[in-house]
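Researcher: Structure prediction, please.
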Amino acid sequence: MKAMVYRGPYRVRVEEKPRPRLEHPNDAIVRVTLAAICGSDLHLYHGLMPDTRVGHTFGHEFIGVVDEVGSSVQNLQVGDRVMVPFNIFCGSCFFCARGLYSNCHNVNPNATAVGGIYGYSHTTGGYDGGQAEFVRVPFADVGPTKIPDWMSDEDAVLLTDATPTGYFGAQLGDIVEGDVVIVFGAGPVGLVAAKSAWLMGAGRVIVVDHMDFRLEKARTWAQAETYNFTEYDDIVVHMKAITDNLGADVAIDAVGAEADGNFLQHVTSAKLKLQGGSPVALNWAIDSVRKGANISVIGAYGPLFSAVKFGDAMNKGLTLRMNQCPVKRQWPRLFEHVRNGYLRPSELVTHRVPLDDIAEGYHVMSAKLDGCIKPLVVPSAA
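Model: Predicted structure follows.
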């Protein structure tokens, strides 16, 4: 089969790999019909995630058709059209029993932290991802869900990570009616977080980024106020100035490891790999909220040290909540929001890239060319 493979930082290509096989009675093999490139994939592409091995196939956002099922699988049949959450989870361990599917204890040798994730290095279990013609899906009775007949493929694929993660970010902010919410980052996750903040009762939603085309999307799609941080001497001072000099009630870090805005932090993290990620957006969040506020972190960071202003957070009495999104826990409500027209994830799609051209797709997204917000990957086997 054809699959995207990693060959080192900034180097990906399509190669022939063996078609995945059933390794356990609970496995399924899914023929991928649509995948996506996520901003988190760029952390791998740029060489920021440890133990990203040559030959690894990325892709944790994908949908497809069941091609083969193991002997113990009861909920799926060959031919079913399915969406697969980016979390790999067993459904029965201590954490899964509490709905913490992203922290499953049985799917990752490094499970003292994160659980299993498709196509996201051996730090998260070493599972090949869905930027390929076929993918092995463990615990097939637990993770995948049949796509409702009324749901489009492009909405479905964005419900495997970007949309639930943005929605989860707003949930973690514990927004109450009338709250002022600042979202740092206007990528797909930040855009969904901003839109979701309205659904949870926010009275004012502000989005901060430095790409004008993404800020335009935040205005038109998420109905948010927008600010380009490059236009201000100190974006934190400006955020305080526009919030009665108190600060926002909630801030959401939807950027993570590769935040711009501070040259030293960016170089020490993204270039020299001395930090687990540039904490610029998180530190701005800490400084931009009022005392006693809530901060939600859904941007991805690596496992190394990062220079976060933890003392300031403590002294301001902030509540910080964070996790990889437990996708399947978000689906029931998100399905209703999509069906009722409150959310249309497919409206974030800007590019559709054939699998054979995936190297160009990564370049366009990494360099933020051609107004790229969310690129989809179309396997030739589809």
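Model: Confidence is low (pLDDT under 50) at residues 263-269.
Researcher: Thanks, that helps.
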